[in-house]
Amino acid sequence: SYRMLRISVGHRDHLINPRAIQYLESELHKVHVHCGKDVYTTYAKLDDLQLQLPSTFVRCHRSILVNLVYVSSLDERDVRLRDGTVLPVSRRKARDVQRSLLAFVAGRQNAS
Asked: Which of 30, 31, 32, 34 is nearest to 18 (CA)?
């Protein structure tokens, strides 16, 4: 079961279904939550948000948390999402991302 991600945007609280989130990107003290065409910007730490999200969210870069559900391909330098978005993968994170993606894909095949 998924817990909704609660973020504050301006003076409003938003509840976002994690399944709708493609990736989160931190910039200075803000985090941009990318849900397709919708982007929510909140003052938060990526680490704090990651704790509230399911294990399909993996850190591919110091400033980016990607939802493996949306990943279409991966190489050493970047991860490509189904909509064509390309996100950087840092060298330090590459092996973790690869391992997580393989486990995710294997788990999904076992589930079906």
From this structure: 34
